[in-house]
Amino acid sequence: MIFTRDEDYFVFRDCFADACRRHDCLVHAYVLMTNHVHLLVTPRAEDSIPFVMQSVGRRYVRYFNDRYLRTGTLWEGRYRAALIDTDRYLFSCYRYIEMNPVRAGLVSHPRHYRWSSYGANALGQPDELVAPHERLRALGDDSEHRTAAYRGLFDQVLDEQEVTHIRGVGSIWRARGQAEV
């Protein structure tokens, strides 16, 4: 487990938001699961993502180890990242990330999961961590039309081939010893 209490999620979000500000990354989608994290991020510099992940890893692991009186690493290994080169793949990644709690059986719909970007992207709820991707902004002329169009994307279920592909190459940060859900 990498998150056991609400406080853990808040601390991780703070560490991540701070690192993204300092290293110039935009976060478009995220989900914080109990044993792994999925992120959709645009770096504004070539080395932004490695610096963000290093910063979060150091700060959050220090917090977690101190909080739970443990030592050692928390992560299974290095994060994995993949270039997203088409709109279809971009929106598949959005859906994959925000549907993760549904696939894991934690909630029946992504709107019910507190620790993801679905509220911001699909419902227009404020989330200081989320910066809409330019392709998401292009879904509609205003917030109401954009969020409605975005919610419509979730009417289409990702097929198993897409899920398997994203799992194989997507940006996944997993806890040590835990299988991806």
Radius of gyration over all CA atoms, rounded: 16 Å
Q: β content, as a range?
A: 5-15%
Count of the domains: 2
Order of adjacent strands in the largest pleated sheet:
1-2-3
Q: Residue-averaged pLDDT, rounded?
A: 89
Task: Please tell me about this protein's structure.
By secondary structure, the protein is mostly helical. It has two domains: 6-81, no CATH class; 87-169, no CATH class. The chain has helices spanning 6-23, 48-67, 87-103, 118-123, 134-137, 143-153, 160-169; strands at 25-32, 36-43, 172-174. It has a three-stranded antiparallel beta sheet with strand order 1-2-3, sandwiched between helices. A hairpin with a 3-residue loop joins strand 1 and strand 2. The model is unreliable at 170-181 (pLDDT under 50).
Q: How would you concisely characterize the structure shown here?
A:
This protein is mostly helical.
List the SSEs and their pairings.
Blueprint lengths: L5 H18 L1 E8 L3 E8 L4 H20 L19 H17 L14 H6 L10 H4 L5 H11 L6 H10 L2 E3 L7
Main traits of this protein?
single chain; mainly alpha; 2 domains; 3-stranded antiparallel sheet; 3 strands
